[in-house]
Amino acid sequence: MRKTRIAGAFAGIAIAAIALTACNSGSPGAPAGGGDEGSDEALWQVASDVSLDGSPTFERMTARDGVIIGVKNDQPGLGYQDAATNDRSGFDVEIAQWIAASLGFGPDQITYETIPSANREQAIVNGDIDYYVGTYSITDSRKQQIDFAGPYLITGQGLLVAADNDDINGPDDLTGKIVCSVTGSTPLQRIRDEYTPGDTVEYDTYSQCIDQLLAGSVDAITTDQAILAGYVAQRPDELKIAGETFSEERYGVGLEKGDSALKDHINTLFNDGGDIWTALFDRNLAPAGIEGSQPTADE
């Protein structure tokens, strides 16, 4: 039986006019840690005396007295690492911190590993990371190797083009065009399978695709619109989103296959933590023009 005791009530703050209210002790949905790195605004406190029977992942975390989390580092608003300070920020990073805190691990006990999209499943299978939070779409093929908690965000695939591009307004306009995405991504495979681009090129990171787009070497970048909006927010005079979304992507937390205790804990955390989710969304994604509401975690 899983038992979680939260020490104390969480600090009251107001973010985007949201009044956060304390959750009851004994629930993994109770708040348990801080905000993004360097922030004075605490949304939760770190849980104490956490027990998660039947979770091999939690046993590894406890034995090493720390958690290793797989993340992205080049997605503004989601998973981003500042090159000058090495600080990490974004919705996914804070979701990862929230989970860690609910398991009893504070910021100084977290190790982040930047894992390219193509290597995510293997990193989880090998035990190189404890869980992965980084725009990780839940798919049946991935669920053959790993499990997911969530979804914690639903978005859709979109296209990013140069601000002065009037030729591309959706995926049907990609005929004869060169499209860039990252190796191992669901959006890249969908473009190849369902549409007729002139060519596709792939890199380990989206920032490499951004460089190619700005240099005129590719015509469009495709991935989830939540990711694309972050790049537009950084370079509004150079980039724009072309058209509407044309898929549904359900972001989940990648876990070791069969670790149902950890999956259930995270799903309960999400479903009981609506105020925290909304505060994180408003802080990280809403400023880039992204709209959304919290989905039910039902994996």
In short:
The chain has 299 residues and is of the alpha/beta class. Helix content is 27%, strand content 24%. It has eight helices and 17 strands.
Describe this structure in words.
The chain has 299 residues and is α/β, with parallel strands linked by helices. Helix content is 27%, strand content 24%. Strand 2 (14-15) and strand 3 form a beta hairpin. The longest helix has 13 residues, at 260-272. The protein is globular and about 60 Å long. It starts with a strand and ends in a 15-residue tail after the last helix. The relative contact order is 0.19. The model is unreliable at 1-33 and 35-40 (pLDDT under 50).
In terms of topology, how is this protein built?
Blueprint: E1 3-5, E2 14-15, E3 18-19, E4 48-51, H1 56-64, E5 67-71, E6 74-75, E7 79-81, E8 88-89, H2 91-102, E9 110-114, H3 120-126, E10 131-132, E11 146-155, E12 157-162, E13 178-182, H4 186-194, E14 199-203, H5 206-214, E15 220-224, H6 225-234, E16 239-241, E17 249-256, H7 260-272, H8 274-284
Parallel strand pairs: 5-9, 5-10, 13-14, 13-15
Antiparallel strand pairs: 1-4, 2-3, 6-7, 7-8, 11-17, 12-15, 12-16
Name the descriptors.
3-stranded parallel β-sheet, alpha/beta, 5-stranded mixed β-sheet, globular, 8 helices, 299 residues, single chain
